[in-house]
Amino acid sequence: MNKQSGIHYLREHRKAGSTRPVPPEVARIRDTVIAGLGDLLQGAFDAVDDSLFELANNARSNNEQNRYFEAMREIRIKRKGVERHFQNAIAQFFADPPGSAQPEPEPSAPPVSAETLSLVGNDDLEEQVALNAMITKAKAHFQGPLLQLQARFSQVYPGASDESPVNPLAPEHLCSAFTEAIQVLEIQIRERLILLKQFDRYVVSNLGMLLDEANRILIQAGIIPNFRYHGKTGKQAPPPGAKADSSETSEASTGPAETAADSTAVFEQIRQMLALQRANAGIPARATDPRFHVIGDRELITLLSALPTPVPAEPGVNLSEGEPVTIDLRGLIQQALTQVDTGDGKQPALKEVDEDLINLVSMLFEFILDDYNLSPPVQVLISRLQIPILKVVIKDKTFFSKATHPARKLLNALARAGIGWSKSDEKTKDQLYDKIHGIVQRILNEFDGDLALFETLNEEFEQYLARENRRASLVEQRTRESERGRIKSQKAQETVDRILQEKIRRYPLPEPIHSILVNGWSRVMFLAYLRDDVEHRWQETVKVVDDLIWCLHPHQEDAERDQWVRVVPGLLKSLRAGLEEVSYNASRLDEMMGELKHELAKAFRTRPLSEVREDEATTAEASEQPAASSPAGQPEDAAIAEFVTQIDAIEIGDWVEFRLVNGASFRCKLSAIIEEADSFVFVNRMGLKVIEKTRLELAHEMRRGRLTLLEQGSLIDRALDAVVGSLRSKTA
């Protein structure tokens, strides 16, 4: 076992954290956790190394490449020290556990303002936001096991109570230990964020098994064995008659907690960056400026409902004609605000959170309008929904914090379904296009602020997609099976022909024997190749050819002639049985076997004084297994090798776009990779085959810019990632 696994460090950990003795069950948990975290941390560091190498490989300049290589070197040199520091800190938590304060508001409180952000550096802010997101996600995802563990640890440690519980495995403690351990690394913020991301992915996200094991050990020790967890914790039920916050209520009832925590963290990160931009620009908070009348939510919703729809949505109008619609949402809102009569003479203004939401919707649609992964007609249709989505976001701010929000789910479903739509498809005859077009038209015409419309449309669209996908899956399965059979048959015939030609060329054969092998025995070999995974007869059929050619050689040595006598009877029996099985020339089979025996006897009687026998080591190539195909053509240079690596990363079900020489393009999905033929089979969204290429052919297509991989992640999630990246570059 690797030293870094933690096992070899246990004695050192006990010494480092032995300020006071711990109960035996806690010591057992400590040893298990330290070993497990050591293994997980190794995976995180390995992933960091791979990420930095990939970034360096794709760097746009030598300076950027050197930066990543220097970071790799720094982390490799100090990695063991970081791992040791982290594990020692965890051991110390068990010896002297930090108290867990009562639940405080999540990272979104305290309020973000220019004054607070001006005291925090950009790098520190980004790192803190990443840590807050990591901790929030872990607390949400492992809420039950963490609560049980905290209750049990509080029973074990003297001095702990319900008011001041302890939990050495709380996510905030583990994250603080890691943050402290990596302070020794002299790397920049981007590399530090990569390190935190992989720590989250490999360590924090896999805490469940360690938490469960810790709970199991304490249960075996009889510490609160019947504890059960139900629902969310840390939130008191609202008093009777009180209206619960909509985001909390819906988050508690729907959707995985991990996804909600992730999205909330992203939204808070965006808000903090926008607030930092306002602080850097010296823009005061309008909520505290006496010159402004801040518009409330109800007033704003009324204002949004009065906004005109700049796109006609009458029946018969093709909404996908032309280019995607670009709408200046901020300008529209500001123009509408000028028409508001505040009644007190003050200038109407929006709350900062509403301004942030409007800015965020604008940035999201900027990404959507530039997203190459969306097919153009679907992109145009979705662009029509900017004002309706803005109304949704202002009315229900959980759009960004809940992956299960009905409007968000519908947008993702429309984008996902339209990824395979090609320009060559006829919109007038396409049911999917009609369905998406109808959904957009209904939203434009019918949405009045009631989110039930999105729920209804999403449910109808999912039912439609389920029917279409079932039909396409059956067609695709038949296509895939047909292609596998065709390619395997083609490969079998090519292999049989190649092997026979190679063997026959080495030694001239009499015409009757040549005819039997090429026209008759080749069929036996063909069937054996196809059935080899069940009958395992391929090697035997190849050996029959080798034995026949060997027996047709004149042999001089007595030992060889004795072997000839032993081989021939079995050889004749195998040849007859195989030829009968494939019904080869049944009327003349006896006659052909007689000719074969005559040629064999003739060869046996021939005893030349000097006969150099062919090197029979040549049978090695002929005995290749049918599953082992000849290697694909090697790249001609190092440049194509990079693209071959990208092709190998494509998985079944991934969508790509091919561009033809004449400028046309089409989209298709990888349906099958047939390794023995080095064949990649692509189908359209109906499941029908559209193209088939080898690995090297695909690499050349990608190198020429004629093949593009399409991203299939959720549209809104990708858009949020792009917005975060854009804001991060602006605040750097």
Automatic annotation (TrEMBL):
Coiled-coil stretches: none
Spans annotated as Disordered: 1-22, 95-114, 231-262, 609-635
Bias type Low complexity, positions: 619-635
A Pfam entry, by short name: DUF1631
Entries under InterPro entries matching the protein: DUF1631
Record's protein name: Thymidine phosphorylase
